Amino acid sequence: MSEFIVIQVGQCGNQIGSFLLPEILQEYGVKTTTDSPAKPKRNKAELQQFMSSFFNMDPTNTTIETLSDLLKSKAKARFLCIDMEDSVVARFKSGRLRDLFDSKSLITHYPGSGNNWAEGYCSHGPKFKQKILKAIQYNVEKCDHLHGFLVLFSMGGGTGSGLGTFIVKLLADFFPHIDRFVACVYPTGTEDVITGPYNMAFATEQLLESATCVFPVENRALLDIALRHTGRYSARNKTYFSPFRPFEDMNKIIVDMILHLTSGSRFGGKMNIDMNEINTNMVPFPKLNFLASGYSPFRLKNFNSSAHSDQLKNELFLASCSRNNQLIKVDPFDSRYMAMSVTLLGRGNYSINDMRGYIDRLKSKLHFACWSNKAVKVGLCNVAPKGLDFSMFSLCNTSSTSNLFQEVLNQFTKLYQRKAHVHHYTAISGFDFDQFKECQNSISNIIEFYQEIGKRKTL
């Protein structure tokens, strides 16, 4: 069974990880609180054959019902928690799941990276390189079939963007044959990080070079989805209201994306998709490794899928590919852009005939180039998300992703043309002023590459 090592970096990455681990346990049918989780759709013992995907644990024939049962099996989550501030990581040491974390996989420091990519990449990266490598190697050696690294961080701050991309490059240098999958969060541009545009641009440049596949998420897309699906939006006052904070709904959307993304590697299926197949099928050219993701339904409110009619399945298929359900601001069906490759993963009660019909509909709606008009990868995973009978997940490599890079470049240029805040970066040892221009040119080149690819649909 495929195994993953999760590396969560910075405040955002660790917050996402704090939502991810409980959801993984509930998907395996493990009760972690006094409140009973939704019953899994399959036998627990059968589900828990696949728990080694995220856990190092002694083999056991006993069905794991509770967190206590899991700890008796000496299970440790294969999660590395890294931050240059102690506050978020400290919660893992005292929370209800604290015994699942290995102390050798918790790395902190004080103070943080000061919202400065250069501080995280050029200063904290080299300083903690050996300690991070040792923690990674420690987890790698406990794996029998390591499938990939899953790295989580934000692009706007200093530690996530800087140290996060340093770690991705470290993985590329020291573990070149292990895939590096990155789920990263782009801020809306209205946050309190003034230097965010620089951090986003420098981090994006590094991911184009060192990541195997990138699954970007934009906060503005997440917030739109949350507003539509939670029912906690006042049209009159145009405000979001919730008994919780909005980022909790947004983190849940990201976590569900990751669960869908890895489900083909974690569970059995009629036509399953391993994560290494995603890179082979979805990235036709080097550096075009940013993939738009979408799924349906969202579990932000109660959803009744018990009446699994063909009509409802069709609705979920179309919704998973629609612009309203994309985790970045793209529209795969926009006629101005070209789709280079698509993956559809049905979880739960789907048949091969269902998927064949969806492929035909997809090809009639999407605009493929003549050289990629058959580039649709299909998967069927037997295990549906918790509490559902079925769901649909999509990945699309589309030239409309250039809009994300254009937004990053525009924000970067507004600051750089005035040389605003540049001195904070050049003051860091190892950072050279020329990196500003090199980064700007690199992102401009990738935008041109997408534009050129888009023209090929008419060839």
From TrEMBL:
Under Pfam families, the record lists: Tubulin (PF00091), Tubulin_C (PF03953)
- One annotated GO biological process: mitotic cell cycle
Give Gene Ontology CC terms. Answer: cytoplasm; microtubule
InterPro entries linked to this entry = Epsilon_tubulin, Tub_FtsZ_C, Tubulin, Tubulin/FtsZ_2-layer-sand-dom, Tubulin/FtsZ_GTPase_sf, Tubulin_C, Tubulin_CS, Tubulin_FtsZ_GTPase
Q: Which residues form the Tubulin/FtsZ 2-layer sandwich domain?
A: 271-410
Keyword GTP-binding set for record = yes
Where is each Tubulin/FtsZ GTPase domain found?
61-269
Q: Which UniProt keywords apply?
A: GTP-binding, Microtubule, Nucleotide-binding
Picking any one GO molecular function of the record gives: GTP binding
Q: Does the keyword Membrane apply?
A: no
Which regions form coiled coils?
none
Identify its protein family. Belongs to the tubulin family.
Q: What is this protein called?
A: Tubulin beta-3 chain-like Protein
Q: Which organism is it from?
A: Tribolium castaneum (Red flour beetle)
Gene encoding the protein: AUGUSTUS-3.0.2_04947
